[in-house]
Amino acid sequence: MEKGEAARSPPMQLKMGDELEGNTSSLRTAETLLRLVPVGLCVSALVLMLKNSQQNEYGTVDYSDLGAFRYLVHANGICAGYSLFSAVIAAMPRPSTMPRAWTFFLLDQVLTYLILAAEAVSAEVLYLAENGDAATTWSSACGYYGRFCHKGTASIAITFVAVVCYVVLSLISSYKLFSKYDAPASRPSAGIEVAAFPG
After folding, report:
1. Cα(128)–Cα(83) distance, rounded to whole angstroms?
2. Residue 134: CB partners within 8 Å, gap ≥ 6?
3. By CB distance 3.0 to 4.6 Å, which of 17, 27, 112, 183 could disulfide with 166?
4. pLDDT in tens, 145-186
């Protein structure tokens, strides 16, 4: 009986191994493509913001005049470089080790928060430029610098799509890391004692 089980066992293991290998290959391809998408998004948002300036009779405004927009440019540059580098590493058909999984997980988390913070602070500055703030007597500036605000809005919208890509990448790297660990051992509920409180 043991020989019969042993004879049937290898084909099932081989089939499961092929299925897992196919899933790993398709996941690697999807992850690589998803890591390449932010490269184009971040570079286009960066270039759009770098060329964002306007001059009229009221004066000149440039992206470098606002710290939030400078931060957005730097964050997009860093994220584009990381996305390209990580796509090359993810495309290599090597087995995923624990240090590699932890590295991807931590860097994906850090860069997701970096690009999210840059997008959020830039959106806040653009909101104030668009609507002003009556409580602090800060008037709207987009009425005078409309083209500047439109380019800023486009750059922030493109960055938002990059943020969504980074969130999905963070979920994938979390899955790849934590799927390497075993599930916690379950304990039978019969052995658990519950304290009774007088009442």
Report:
1. 31
2. none
3. 112
4. 889 889 999 999 999 999 999 999 999 888 888 887 777 766
